[in-house]
């Protein structure tokens, strides 16, 4: 029983690490496909449409007995969740990259933990008492994780492990994570507009995670929620693409990296990642999920060194260490808070059991 409860307790941690690894792979494939001309509007529509075709039958099979009835109010909430979490977030992210660069996009995603933490405090999902040492630890851990991710993204430093460099026709800075090696063909840089779109994307992701936590309390069937999340997202993005994507040939998929990217995004991204994220939000809350966002950059740097033979730099190591310290601080604080809550719940029960026994003992005497 102890081993089982321990596995259940640490399962969300393992799931979120896997999610970040899958997201690194998704970023790699999507940037490779879009650098060859695939429209991101088409990509989002096809990926979410295919994911909804997979998720709807699964939800009817898995959750048919425990699924609450679907009401018009719930469907409206699913629609708004898709509007924020897919239509706004994904399209703003790609537009921001086109106006600026993938490096800036990576740096701006580190705003997600700060946005999520702020929203959770505003809506009273998280307790923030600046006089409390645990609240201070959680706040400092969040800031450390963001700072570490910024170091990995923007600072290179001297090399630690030198590897053979593969000749390439493209100029690529090894200080960037490996998924930046397939750079998008961007429009002339407009960093102000690009930063604005990327900030909106990060804020949309934070709002989406916070809203999911509230919706799952009312409607606890997460597979059904994710099914409608992808379905409404596909419809909304398809409507948007009618105005944004005027080339009909863009909808013709080529049996190469484009098709592989869409299949991977639908199966591993939308089905796997969205379902895992919603489950972790239900189990641990939106702040827990957002804390893993900076970890993605550290994972990308490590995988690049191991599997792609890229040079490891001091900046990557320093940033990864700072991320881990900040991440550990927040998770340790959350673990202590959960332990105290369980103690408060179990404490009165044990005392209520002991009281009648003492009274009986005194009566007998």
TrEMBL record:
<feature type="transmembrane region" description="Helical">
    <location>
        <begin position="7"/>
        <end position="29"/>
    </location>
</feature>
<dbReference type="InterPro" id="IPR000620">
    <property type="entry name" value="EamA_dom"/>
</dbReference>
<feature type="transmembrane region" description="Helical">
    <location>
        <begin position="103"/>
        <end position="125"/>
    </location>
</feature>
<feature type="region of interest" description="Disordered">
    <location>
        <begin position="342"/>
        <end position="365"/>
    </location>
</feature>
<keyword id="KW-0812">Transmembrane</keyword>
<keyword id="KW-0472">Membrane</keyword>
<dbReference type="InterPro" id="IPR037185">
    <property type="entry name" value="EmrE-like"/>
</dbReference>
<feature type="transmembrane region" description="Helical">
    <location>
        <begin position="191"/>
        <end position="211"/>
    </location>
</feature>
<feature type="domain" description="EamA">
    <location>
        <begin position="193"/>
        <end position="331"/>
    </location>
</feature>
<feature type="transmembrane region" description="Helical">
    <location>
        <begin position="313"/>
        <end position="331"/>
    </location>
</feature>
<feature type="domain" description="EamA">
    <location>
        <begin position="25"/>
        <end position="153"/>
    </location>
</feature>
<feature type="transmembrane region" description="Helical">
    <location>
        <begin position="223"/>
        <end position="242"/>
    </location>
</feature>
<feature type="transmembrane region" description="Helical">
    <location>
        <begin position="41"/>
        <end position="62"/>
    </location>
</feature>
<dbReference type="Pfam" id="PF00892">
    <property type="entry name" value="EamA"/>
</dbReference>
<protein>
    <recommendedName>
        <fullName>WAT1-related protein</fullName>
    </recommendedName>
</protein>
<dbReference type="GO" id="GO:0022857">
    <property type="term" value="F:transmembrane transporter activity"/>
</dbReference>
<feature type="transmembrane region" description="Helical">
    <location>
        <begin position="288"/>
        <end position="307"/>
    </location>
</feature>
<dbReference type="GO" id="GO:0016020">
    <property type="term" value="C:membrane"/>
</dbReference>
<comment type="similarity">
    <text>Belongs to the drug/metabolite transporter (DMT) superfamily. Plant drug/metabolite exporter (P-DME) (TC 2.A.7.4) family.</text>
</comment>
<feature type="transmembrane region" description="Helical">
    <location>
        <begin position="74"/>
        <end position="97"/>
    </location>
</feature>
<feature type="transmembrane region" description="Helical">
    <location>
        <begin position="137"/>
        <end position="155"/>
    </location>
</feature>
<keyword id="KW-1133">Transmembrane helix</keyword>
<dbReference type="InterPro" id="IPR030184">
    <property type="entry name" value="WAT1-related"/>
</dbReference>
<feature type="transmembrane region" description="Helical">
    <location>
        <begin position="262"/>
        <end position="281"/>
    </location>
</feature>
């Amino acid at each position: 029983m102890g081993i089982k409860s321990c596995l259940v307790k640490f399962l969300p941690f393992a799931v979120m690490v896997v999610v970040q690894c899958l997201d690194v792979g998704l970023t790699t494939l999507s940037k490779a496909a879009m650098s060859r001309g695939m429209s991101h509007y088409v990509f989002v529509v096809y990926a979410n449409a295919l994911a909804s075709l997979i998720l709807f039958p699964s939800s009817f099979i898995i959750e048919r007995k425990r699924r609450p009835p679907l009401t018009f109010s719930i469907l409206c909430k699913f629609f708004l969740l898709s509007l924020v979490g897919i239509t706004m977030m994904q399209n703003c992210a790609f537009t921001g990259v086109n106006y600026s660069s993938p490096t800036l996009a990576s740096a701006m995603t580190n705003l997600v933990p700060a946005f999520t933490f702020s929203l959770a405090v505003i809506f009273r999902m998280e307790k923030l008492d600046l006089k409390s040492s645990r609240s201070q630890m959680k706040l400092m851990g969040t800031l450390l994780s963001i700072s570490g991710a910024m170091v990995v993204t923007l600072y290179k430093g001297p090399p630690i492990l030198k590897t053979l460099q593969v000749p390439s026709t493209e100029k690529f800075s090894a200080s960037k994570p490996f998924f930046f090696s397939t750079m998008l063909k961007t429009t002339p840089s407009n960093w102000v507009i690009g930063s604005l779109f990327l900030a909106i994307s990060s804020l949309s992701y934070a709002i989406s995670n916070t809203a999911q936590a509230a919706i799952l309390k009312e409607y606890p069937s997460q597979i059904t929620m994710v099914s409608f999340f992808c379905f409404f997202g596909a419809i909304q993005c398809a409507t948007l693409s009618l105005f944004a994507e005027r080339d009909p040939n863009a909808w013709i998929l080529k049996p190469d990296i484009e098709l592989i990217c869409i299949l991977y995004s639908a199966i591993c991204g939308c089905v796997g990642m969205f379902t895992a994220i919603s489950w972790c939000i239900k189990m641990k809350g939106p702040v827990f999920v957002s804390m893993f966002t900076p970890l993605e950059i550290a994972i990308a740097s490590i995988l690049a060194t191991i599997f792609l033979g890229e040079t490891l730099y001091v900046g990557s190591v320093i940033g990864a260490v700072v991320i881990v310290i900040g991440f550990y601080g927040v998770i340790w604080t959350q673990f202590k808070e959960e332990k105290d809550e369980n103690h408060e719940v179990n404490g009165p029960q044990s005392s209520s059991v002991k009281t009648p026994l003492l009274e009986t003992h005194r009566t007998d005497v």
